[in-house]
Amino acid sequence: KSEKRSLSLVVVGHVDAGKSTMMGRLLYELGQIDEKKRVANERGSAKMGKSSFSWAWELDGTQEERERGITMDIALQTLNTPHRIITILDAPGHRDFIPNMISGASQADSALLVVDAAVGEFEAGFDRGGQTREHLLLVRSLGVSQVIVAVNKLDQVEWAKSRYNEIVQLLKPFLVQSGFHPSRTKFVPVVAMEGVNLTRREPADCPLFKWYEGPTLVDLLDALDPPTRDINAPLRFPISNIFKGTTSGITVSGRVCGGIVVAGERLRIVPGDESATVKLIDNDGESLPWAGAGSNINLILTSVDPVSLNIGSVLCRPGSIIPLTFSFIARIIVFDIQIPITAGTSIELFHHSLDVPASISRLISVLDRSNGNVIKSKPRVLTKNMSAEVEISLRGSLYSGPASRALPIPIEPFSVNKEMGRILVRRGGETIGAGAYHPLRAHQLRLI
Ligand code: GDP
Question: Tell me, what's the ipTM?
Answer without folding.
Answer: 0.98
